[in-house]
Amino acid sequence: MDFQLTEDQEFIRKAAREFAEKECRPTAAERDEHKTFPHEIVKKMGELGFMGVAIPEQYGGAGLDYVSYAIMIEELSRVDASIGVIASVNNSLVCAGIEKFGTEEQKQEILAPLASGARLGAFSLSEPGAGSDAAAQKTTAVADGDYFIINGTKNWVTNGSEADTILLMAMTDPDKGVKGITAFLIDTADAGCSVLKVEDKLGIRSAHSAQMSYDNYRVHKSRMLGAPGQGFKIAMTILNGGRIGIASQALGIAQGAYEAALEYAKIREQFGQAIINFEAVGFTLADMATRIKAARLLTYNAAWMKDSGQNYIAAASMAKLFASETAMWTATKAIQVHGSNGYSKEYPVERYFRDAKITEIYEGTSEIQRLVISREIAR
Ligand code: CAA
């Protein structure tokens, strides 16, 4: 067993860390406060190859592996989880989906500009009545000659308000239920696609989550991703990879919160000494470091399983489940180590705490991850 990272993997960790420190950290708190979407940062990430890390170079990507992708999301999220999820959605929910299921024409025309960062992608499955029960799609796509007419409302579309392309699931044959769902590649510039609202959220506030409406939106059949009725399977397959991205995001949040707590515990003095010398604090930091290490091993292992062509469904869900719960636990404890200062916006840990929560919810709640794992181990 070889736990040594490759040269490429070490390189992307260094590049992503430097980028996060230099370009993201200085504005992270302010963007969070004002819900400011980081257009400039996203543009620069495109130039660095961060928007299509594991996509082949011929389709505009950086041509690296999924472990490299996980490391990049971890490093971005260590500083700013909003940046982490913007990149994660584009990389693993949109680019990876088109690369796996798209036609050559779709890869040339739609994937390449997304992977190079020239355009931004979003993924749209959730609806007002379809959260954990993702198959309960009410958005319809009705055939009309060479086109489909789409009507419906989609919720919680990360990047939705800023996206150029949306990978959208809609019901083409309601009688077939889960096998009547089809995936489409939507161009948001076309008439009939609009943003109803951008959510005012607890965390990841600099990343925008939109409610979107489709009102007689016409999409040509050449923009169908995969075959009719394959949409649910496509969405689930994409989410398996996406969950490694969210595990990486959670890992980065945990690491950032831990580092802040460690630094604070070394300089904060009470009862005449640095608080790290008190067992209650030192042991808390030891538990943080241990859980983070376990989350990292699970996350990189799931990414490595994907890279090596193994069935990684359970591994991805285990990584997301454990890493997201580690992020929430670590961020909670990081505030405790800071005492009252942790409750103040003058210190970064309250942002890590607010950002951590969503990792236990989106791309499948912790309860859904347990469901997926239990089904997989029962096979
Ligand atoms: N990988 C591949 N295929 C899968 C799969 C997986 N993980 N899970 C299910 N499938 C396939 C099944 O094999 C089946 O296909 P076949 O009949 O061909 O075998 C088909 O999908 C239907 O499966 P189920 O009968 O298991 O479907 P279900 O209705 O019981 O639902 C579920 C399964 C696991 C609960 C699923 O609905 C689920 O994962 N729910 C959570 C949804 C979710 O993660 N939403 C996140 C939205 S995206 C987001 O968060 C926004 C963002 O922008 C970040």
In short:
It contains ten helices and ten strands. With 379 residues, it is of the alpha+beta class.
Written description of the protein model:
The protein is of the alpha+beta class and 379 residues long. The protein has three domains: 7-120, Butyryl-Coa Dehydrogenase, subunit A, domain 1 (Orthogonal Bundle), CATH 1.10.540.10; 122-231, Butyryl-CoA Dehydrogenase, subunit A, domain 2; 233-377, Butyryl-CoA Dehydrogenase, subunit A, domain 3, CATH 1.20.140.10. The chain is 53% helix and 16% strand. The strands form three sheets. A four-stranded mixed sheet has the order 1-4-5-8. A four-stranded antiparallel sheet has the order 2-3-7-6, covered by helices on one side. Helix 3 (66-79) packs across helix 6 and helix 4 (81-101) packs antiparallel against helix 6. It is globular and about 80 Å long. The model has no long low-confidence stretch (mean pLDDT 98). Bound molecules: acetoacetyl-coenzyme A (CAA). Acetoacetyl-coenzyme A is lined by residues 89, 123, 125-126, 132, 134-135, 156, 158, 178, 232-233, 236-237, 239-240, 313, 362-364, 368, 371-372.
